[in-house]
Design brief:
Layout lengths: L2 H25 L4 H16 L11 H12 L9 H4 L4 H18 L3 H31 L6 H7 L4 H6 L1
Helix pairs in contact: 1-6, 1-7, 2-3, 2-5, 3-6, 6-7
Length: 163
């Protein structure tokens, strides 16, 4: 296979991955963990306060919340769900109420979900491209973008990029 054709096939597979995962990101409703993670990530950036969702590392939640914070997504820090979350157990319980309010009550839910899912979708595409680049280095220039093909059609990868 010619180098240009291999490169075109790899880009085509990345476009396919973007189309499948992107359309799922636009169509799918909010998942269970997204509620807590979106609200927690937004509070990390807006308040620099890590009280919500402390059982998971903050990096993924911060990445998700960057476009939300940049576009001015609203969060009411005078709400009971925020005020009650001073210690671990109440924060564990109220993170769901706070996240639900961020996603569905204080902001329109479709654009909020879209902007929260976009960084993960772009990260999935970037990692797919990196796999192809380093796969070529390891397997040689004659290697087909088979690994990228496997991952762009993998049902386990597509939802991860969308959610």
């Amino acid at each position: 296979m010619q180098p240009k054709l291999r490169r075109a096939a790899a880009w085509l597979l990345l476009v396919f991955l973007f189309a499948i995962a992107g359309s799922a990101a636009l169509r799918e409703s909010v998942t269970l963990d997204e509620v807590a993670h979106i609200g927690a990530g937004l509070s990390y950036l807006q308040r620099l306060d890590l009280r919500l969702n402390a059982e998971h590392p903050p990096l993924g939640k911060v990445i998700v919340a960057v476009p939300l914070a940049l576009r001015g997504t609203a969060a009411d820090y005078s709400a009971p769900s925020w005020k009650l979350a001073n210690t671990f157990f109440p924060a564990y319980m109220t993170q769901w109420m706070f996240g639900d309010a961020v996603v569905g009550r204080w902001n329109p839910w479709r654009p909020t979900l879209f902007w929260a899912r976009l960084p993960m979708l772009l990260l999935t595409l970037w990692l797919g491209w990196l796999m192809w680049v380093y796969g070529r280095r390891l397997l040689g220039r004659s290697a087909l973008p088979q690994r990228l093909c496997d991952d762009s059609g993998n049902p386990g990868i597509r939802p991860s990029g969308a959610n």
